[in-house]
Amino acid sequence: MKQILVIGAGPAGMMAAIRAAENGAAVTLLEKMKRPGRKMMITGKGRCNITNAADVPEIIRNIHGNGAFLNSSMRAFDNQDVMEFFRQQGVPVKVERGNRVFPVSDKAQDVVDAMVHRLHELGVRIELEMPVADILLQEGRVAGVRTKSGAHYKADAVILAVGGASYPGTGSTGDGYEMARKLGHTVVPLRPSLVPLETEEEWVKDVQGLSLRNVRATLLAGGEKVQEMFGEMMFTHFGVTGPIILSMSRRAAKCLAEGKFVELELNLKPALTPEKLDARIQRDFGQHIRKSLKNGLLDLLPHKLIEPVLDCAYLDPEKPVHQVTAEERHRLAETLQHLTLTITKTRPLAEAIVTAGGVSVREINPKTMESKLVPGLYFAGEVVDVDAYTGGYNLQAAFSMGNAAGCWSVWNDD
Q1: Contact, 333 vs 228, CB < 8 A?
Q2: Source organism's superkingdom (predicted)?
Q3: The overall pTM is greater than 0.70
């Protein structure tokens, strides 16, 4: 019977352990935290967005960091397989807006509990509070691991699934990268992905907590458009966050790292052409002809946002509506569709939902997840240089990689 060691009890590690055990291996799962699935507990705002119901090509398109690497593993264990797996474990799922898949209960705890129950059912040995220090080799191939307490575990294969370097309180402290480096693997420089952005403009503090829907955001680097997204966002005391901001943050981080001047241009009225927006403003002004500008825009903008927009358009909020010139009105319309923020930096990597960068995919077999450098060493999950937009894509990637690593660690005879 093959002896398989899995390092890390996150989504990829637990799935890998389950698959290895189902294929007849004796599996030990080593986790440094007090309980498994800590990071899963906070995904989807505590509801656990386990996958996305789009077709596989669409999912891969949304995995903007090396999505093509997952072609084999995801087709072997796709989103339908993930949903069926949880249904079989007694966790029915539902599909919500944007094809996001959640447990019907809306409880991440149910997802984690189902995986842990399956591990116990299969006889997987789970060792908690057991951080690993080194992966051990013998004659060039994996032989086991040494824990930080000095304990040695022998194994025919080791699956490294310790997560990235974001949310360190959940156990993702980046120690897997050092283990991989020691064995000769290249680690692509780490950057935050799915992380809020900080802005230079102070006025965001005055509107913190304000959420906007149906906004078009354009990311500019050196004046050139690099990405555009439509959807929801929110202002914070330090800048901006929300689904479209998080999804653009990877590109923003890359551009900032390259020393480029990065801006975020917001179109607050993307459904209107400039001509229709001007007509809308004139209609509102006609209805509020005796009011000041700040009171004449209440039908057009959230109250908190009126004065910042007027300030950016260089307009006096106290100016009577009937005194606004055509040139000033056009300036207001221009600001509504080109409200620009200067991005100074991302929030720290520790606050990112996902880590971009990690063990180079060029050194991993995409079908089996085995190292091309060290026989018997497998990778799965966020430790690999794969990351995606928000929407269940990152967990799907973790489950697909975990499935491949778990199965092939048993099937391979190298």
Answers
A1: no
A2: Bacteria
A3: yes
Q: Among 386, 246, 271, 409, which Cα is nearest to 336's?
A: 271
Assess whether pLDDT exceeds 70 at residue 414: no
Distance CA 4, CA 21 (A): 9
Sign of the CA dihedral with 105 first, then 83, 79, and 16 last: positive
CATH class of 3-191+355-411: alpha beta
- 196-347 CATH choice from 1.10.3470.10, 1.10.3720.10, 1.10.8.50, 1.10.10.60: 1.10.8.50
Does residue 43 register a pLDDT over 90?
no
Per-residue pLDDT, averaged over 278-289, amounts to 94
Classified as helix, coil or strand, 76 is helix
Q: What is the DSSP letter of 347?
A: P
Amino acid letter, 107: K
Tell me the domain boundaries of the chain: 3-191+355-411, 196-347
Give how far Cα 349 sits from Cα of 39, 115, 355, Å: 15, 28, 7
Give the distance, in angstroms, between the CA of residue 305 and the centroid of all CA atoms in the same chain: 28
Beta strands, E only, 74-210: 93-96, 100-103, 125-127, 132-138, 141-147, 152-154, 157-160, 187-193, 197-199
Backbone angles phi, psi at 219, to 5 degrees: -90, 125
Strand order in the sheet with 100-103: 51-52, 100-103, 93-96
Contacts 24+ apart (CB under 8 A), 228-235: 230/270, 233/266, 234/209, 234/210, 235/204, 235/207, 235/208, 235/209, 235/210
Radius of gyration of the chain (CA): 25
Distance (Å, whole) CA 389 – CA 379: 21
Cα 196 to Cα 349: distance, rounded to the nearest angstrom: 10
The CA–CA distances, whole Å, from 71 to 61, 75, 190, 369 equal 11, 6, 23, 12
- For residue 166 the two structure tokens come to 């974001």
Q: How many CA atoms lie within 13 A of 266 on its CB side?
A: 23
Residue 179, token pair as written in the block: 């283990």
Residue 192 confidence (pLDDT) above 80 = yes
